[in-house]
Amino acid sequence: MKRTPITLGIDIGGTSTKYGLVDVDGNFYGEGSIPTYAELPASALLARLFEAIDPLLQNAPTPVELLGVGVGAPNANYYKGTVEQPANLMWEKVTPLADMIQKHYQVPVFITNDANAAAIGEEIFGVAKGMKNFVVVTLGTGLGSGIVVNGELLYGADGFAGEMGHTTVDPDGRDHGSTGLRGGLENYVSATGIKRTVFELLAKRTHPSPLRDVSYNQMTSLQIAQAAEQGDLIALEAFEITAKILGMKLAETVAYLSPEAIILFGGLVASGSLIIEPTKRYMEEYLLKVFKNKIPILPSALMDKNAAVLGASALIWGELRKMKK
Amino acid sequence: MKRTPITLGIDIGGTSTKYGLVDVDGNFYGEGSIPTYAELPASALLARLFEAIDPLLQNAPTPVELLGVGVGAPNANYYKGTVEQPANLMWEKVTPLADMIQKHYQVPVFITNDANAAAIGEEIFGVAKGMKNFVVVTLGTGLGSGIVVNGELLYGADGFAGEMGHTTVDPDGRDHGSTGLRGGLENYVSATGIKRTVFELLAKRTHPSPLRDVSYNQMTSLQIAQAAEQGDLIALEAFEITAKILGMKLAETVAYLSPEAIILFGGLVASGSLIIEPTKRYMEEYLLKVFKNKIPILPSALMDKNAAVLGASALIWGELRKMKK
Fold first, then answer.
1. ipTM confidence
2. A78-85, long-range: CB within 8 Å, 24+ apart, which pairs?
3. Could you say which DSSP state residue A3 is in?
4. Which domains are present in chain B?
5. Looking at the partner chain, which of B84, B159, B291 has a beta carbon nearest the beta carbon of A160?
6. Where residue B325 falls among pLDDT bands split at 50, 70, 90?
7. Would you list which residues of chain A are within 8 Å, Cβ to Cβ, of chain B?
């Protein structure tokens, strides 16, 4: 009986690790999630992961053939297959993650960071199908970016290209907890960034606001979005400021890269018109004439799906496509 | 008798247009320059250009075979072969420059802007030989940049990638004469930019300085460099400010692109340690840890040569190499 070709996608986060068996059309043949236990070494995570995945491979609804494993992980080095000093995982200084997984499955393994995985996911399964030049910006706790140029992910010389979250908005601006750099984009544009902006506005303005009853540690970007939707002036201004900074930086991204489209991904983006419409307006304001009214800002098509796992799996579908060229 | 394969490089500037016959090692088999006459249409320039170049082709020191023509021109669209609304030339709205030249020589013609030509020139003939990922920044009247990724020039979707000179330093900052945008990098870092900084400092500081005897229209970046070399405090501070802004922006470039090296080109760079050393220092300050102490800032190797023509000719050598792959 013919076996269905599938790839295994794994997304390693600080809290949980997700996995799924995915065919070339993005259909799942099994998926799941286990806690990461960030304080344990990578080998412990992998042992539990293999234990969870192996039965899925054997008992899939139709027989499957595993073509490769794609992994999204923090500080993943695509060229070396290593994870190097991730901030949220207490792993060794350098973990040869691709080799460790390859030993178990005996198929090609590719790893990259989650924003790159999101970008290749959009190209294979999402709104970037058929595009050769685009940028995906992921807005979560931080801000990540994945850049596709001439149909391929941009890794650069070191494999660390696309660190847009750490480009500077204001050299004398907000501290970053782990990099030691100041005023970087993700300190302003991310779930954490918009909360920091809300706290500046709670100090600056005097409007009453339900956000005045929530502590810094308790406040979420969802609460800010809900307040904005109910017309709260502090929350609305925070979205406007966030969109202005993001729009200006995206104009810069366009000047560097001349993409066909920019795709936004993440919880903040689900707030739809609160962020996409004003970001587009500000981006246009800062664009050179040759770029004006040409470059759409699109919400990700994968946000309701298991996007991180789809993206990790797409990494392999992308490599297979490259080999066919 | 065997003919030597050569390419014709043409660099079209607002004032003069340079040309040269160049072999695969960067040797010239004839070169020259004619005034551009910016107020006349492109066809008039080309007629005079062909008149000047045709005898060179016939009377080269050894018989030559023309393989292709590479052109560096303002607002050149690589994909379409057109020049679109250049600020300094009173040409038609869209000039089909590549077609017009191809009709005369009956060989492949490629066009691009001068910063891209400089980048490919460094790759074929200069300090970027063997590099796959690097950025060339040209500091002239304005600031241009040419980006090489995976061994190929980055054009992006529209052919207009690499417009680093128009990324924002300060959204409320200095006006740009022709784009209508504010606070762009070339308003600070370029021959004009450093002069504008000197004029701010002449207002802000009270030190005596020979630069206080020169009008805005008379002052050149060479005068500023000479004053700095003689210890003038205004000029030294202007170089320091210029290097700080450039260094910060180059850290951003690195975060986007992860290049092996950054190459600086142009008159300001000839001032050597006045610009390269402090730019490197500031760039390191703003780099993420993964990029620190890895990425050299190199002066162009072509500055004493006919670099613009070499770059334009390298465009063809680069295309021929791509075809061989």
1. 0.88
2. A78/A110, A78/A111, A78/A112, A78/A116, A78/A153, A78/A155, A78/A159, A79/A155, A79/A158, A79/A159, A80/A159, A81/A109, A81/A110, A81/A111, A83/A42, A83/A111, A84/B290
3. P
4. 4-122+305-324 (3.30.420.40), 130-299 (3.30.420.40)
5. B291
6. low
7. 75, 84, 132-133, 147, 149-150, 152, 154-164, 166-168, 171, 179, 181, 248, 251-253, 255-260, 286, 288-291, 294
